[in-house]
Amino acid sequence: MEETLPKFNVQITEDRLHEGARELISKIRPEWPLNKLSFKIFTDGITNRLIGVYFDPRNKHDMVLIRIYGENTDLFIDRNTECCNMKIMYKHGLSAPIYGTFLNGICYGYSPGKVLDENLVRDSNISQLIAEKMAQMHTLKPLKTTTKNTIQQSPIQASLFRDMKKFVALVDSALPLKPSANLKLKNYYDIENLKAEINYLEQILIPLCSPIVFCHNDLLLKNIIFNESTNNVTFIDFEYSDYNYQAFDIANHFCEFCGVDSFDCSLYPNQEFQFRWLKIYLKKWYSLTNGEMDDNRLNDSILERNIEPLYNTVSKFALASCLYWGLWALVQVSNSSIDFDYESFAFQRLNEYYRRKNLSEL
């Protein structure tokens, strides 16, 4: 029988980050002296707050990470599903262990290594590791549970359009805009137009029949850790993970090459890089989904024949990535208390969506 995840009756607020962290550590690492703990505040996250706690400065790899959920994120993130996903990822060697949850967050292990940047993600060795790791994740088949923690009996469906429609409903419920809202962004708050864009994507993407697989859905550069000593990559932050279209997960990763704070579409990987990446991905994917094949027995002609169709499908799903995160940011404008410019983020992603859409219709 699967071990139940501990749930700690602790609430951590902005004004007592260290005190709340100590209270949790007393339960997770009771052998650590509370008066000798060290803390590291991570500032890269744009959904939640993250604090690292460790005892021995010589062994920071034993750090416990404490993630405090962002305000109102329960409106669009299923935290029970997130915990299940993290346990599954750890079981398959794809992530750090999870230690437990508390009233407004989660505790888990630290993944040692370098957080990727725009240069590391293009490194031939690291990009190969990412492609292979994503292929491995896409072959997992975790049981889908409902909000009541019962196993879902209905056929697995992609989360993409369900989530985007949820975002639009949340944006609609937050209107009218607060006075400080970006004037340029106001043009994108036409709810009926946003619904029409989702319908447009459904019409052009669903017929592509991209396989529905278990996806990370948020594989931005900061969510990938490279461990040089083991030559391995680890994915982190599985709060958006769910069943989704294979091509969406790949396209979303490519879109994240363009940055978060400032979206530069010129950084999107070129065709040569994508073809190389997709060949590595397909080689691993076929070897894992066809048990009788190993990586070396796969015929190059089979791979070459399938690279361009996947490339074309991924290119179309890049549209969905831009709209998805643009809508997500519109939700955050009215709900998040994190110090991040969600308005500019939304404007840049939605601008990129319409730019790509216009190019595709030429």
From TrEMBL:
Q: Which gene encodes it?
A: LOC113799602
Q: List its EC numbers.
A: 2.7.1.82
Give the keywords, sorted: Lipid biosynthesis, Lipid metabolism, Phospholipid biosynthesis, Phospholipid metabolism
Pathway assignment reads: Phospholipid metabolism; phosphatidylethanolamine biosynthesis; phosphatidylethanolamine from ethanolamine: step 1/3
- Protein name in UniProt: ethanolamine kinase
- Give the GO terms filed under biological process for this record: phosphatidylethanolamine biosynthetic process
Q: Tell me yes or no: is Mitochondrion among this UniProt entry's keywords.
A: no
Q: Name one GO cellular component term.
A: cytoplasm
Q: Name one GO molecular function term.
A: ethanolamine kinase activity
Note the InterPro entries from the entry: Kinase-like_dom_sf (IPR011009)
Q: Would you identify the family this protein belongs to, as annotated?
A: Belongs to the choline/ethanolamine kinase family.
Keyword Calcium (UniProt)? no
- Per its UniProt entry, which superkingdom is the organism in? Eukaryota
